Amino acid sequence: MSLPVVAIIGRPNVGKSTLFNRLVGKKVALVDDRPGVTRDRREGDANLSGMNFRLVDTAGFEEDDAATLPGRMRAQTQAAVAGADVALFVIDSRAGLVPLDQEIARWLRGTNTPVILIANKAEGRAGDSGVYESFSLGFGEPIPFSAEHGEGLADLFDELMPHLDRIAVEAVVEEDDESPSAPLKMAIVGRPNAGKSTLVNKILGEERMITGPEAGITRDSIAIEWEFEGRAVRLIDTAGLRRKAKVEDKLEKLSAADTAHAIDFAEVVVLLLDATRGLEAQDLRIADQIFEEGRAMVIALNKWDVAEGQSALFNGVRFALDEGFAQVKGVPLLTVSAATGKGLDVLLKVAFETRDAWSKRVPTGELNRWFERALEANPPPAPGGRRIKLRYITQIKSRPPSFVIFGTRVDQLPESYRRYLVNGIRRELGFGAVPVRLTFRAPK
Ligand code: GDP
Ligand code: GDP
């Protein structure tokens, strides 16, 4: 996985190399008092409080031609900025703004790269006026900074974070997201006799799944692919669906193995319930298994054609699900009849929608705007009088959507607060009832 790229921009002698060395941690850049000593573009892997990115130190701009950027330097810098996720624009707050700073600012405003303004050499108070002056560059509030003394790093961290969509967090492996046009990988699970085989046969429109005896009971699963409204669906067809176990007492065992296999395969798992029997403990166990595996889930109440007291039944199952299965409160609950085919179109539509939510990515900026509102509406608790500080959130992967929140003293955060945030993510960021993973980290 490639690291996000951050470029350091600024005229000579403002402290770019010093900043580079501070973040990359090695003395690889040449630091000199003479303007223009820094020439080449250097790159290094930077680490700021556990946040990793690729740092590019651009060539210094030549000063002699004060009003215009020398073409060669400018081209090189331009290339660096264009390839960067964020630009750190460094000024010397002691020297104050000079025309070349204005020139660089004008030019940076014309690019699409987000800019963070760093008022360097601001240790002590010697840079105060330069810090205020730099507001006029039009990049918002500058970060008072000292590359030499390591001041302002926490503010830089906070400012940088929302811009980086691709934060490298150790031990998290980025998966390749499959495109929305890839076949929907679906599995149908449920207790024996819930109607799985009947459902699969009905969807496929032919009675070919439980035909005639096959030799032995095979564990092999095959995938059946077809199109629904122009979109491909791939359904796992397990041994248990193809053919019923002959030996009655093997039925449970076989179906447990099939269930695990099917869940493993699928993006969306349809949990089929038998409406004539209602919700049973084993159904909740399977639901829990689907959730633990991070799969998107749709629950369908089958045999609706023969269900009695339909509205009371439906509400009862809805209630029991939400009570017994709080993790995915609100998981889609549909009514179908595998025998008549009623509700199967809706089932497939909802399965596609659920996969979309499961695959969704929220840009870090939008995510953090939501996060700020959520913290404001209900601030984290303050155990022992010291408030737990949550700084920012980032989505580290999708399928299932997984988020990390960075902050301090996060180990003291109560589970109820985590649930508050997870529910907010689901409700307000369009994830619906898909399982959302949320972990916390304290940068060292
Ligand atoms: P560059 O040309 O932008 O890469 O600037 P350098 O990193 O080479 O720094 C130019 C000069 O400014 C050097 O003498 C540094 O020691 C000094 N310098 C860099 N950062 C700071 C700082 O935070 N405070 C002060 N007082 N001096 C700094
Ligand atoms: P599986 O063990 O989950 O694969 O269940 P089957 O597909 O073998 O179905 C079990 C029994 O329920 C069979 O007798 C089916 O005919 C019956 N069945 C399945 N779906 C429906 C339905 O929607 N309505 C009715 N009335 N019966 C159904």
UniProtKB/TrEMBL annotation:
Pfam families xrefs: KH_dom-like, MMR_HSR1
GO MF, one example: GTP binding
Oligomeric and partner information: Associates with the 50S ribosomal subunit.
Annotated TM spans: none
Function: GTPase that plays an essential role in the late steps of ribosome biogenesis.
Source organism of this protein record: Sphingomonas paeninsulae
CDD domains named among the record's database cross-references: EngA1, EngA2
Occurrences of domain EngA-type G (ranges): 4-168, 184-359
Keywords from the named record: GTP-binding, Nucleotide-binding, Repeat, Ribosome biogenesis
InterPro entries: G_ENGA (IPR031166), GTP-bd (IPR006073), GTPase_Der (IPR016484), KH_dom-like (IPR032859), KH_dom-like_a/b (IPR015946), P-loop_NTPase (IPR027417), Small_GTP-bd (IPR005225)
Name by which UniProt lists this protein: GTPase Der
HAMAP family noted in UniProt: GTPase_Der (MF_00195)
PROSITE patterns given in the database record: G_ENGA
Keyword S-adenosyl-L-methionine: no
Coiled coil: none
GO biological process terms, semicolon-separated: ribosome biogenesis
Nucleotide-binding recorded as keyword: yes
Binding site for GTP 1: 10-17, 57-61, 120-123
Family indicated by similarity: Belongs to the TRAFAC class TrmE-Era-EngA-EngB-Septin-like GTPase superfamily. EngA (Der) GTPase family.
Protein residues bound to GTP 2: 190-197, 237-241, 302-305
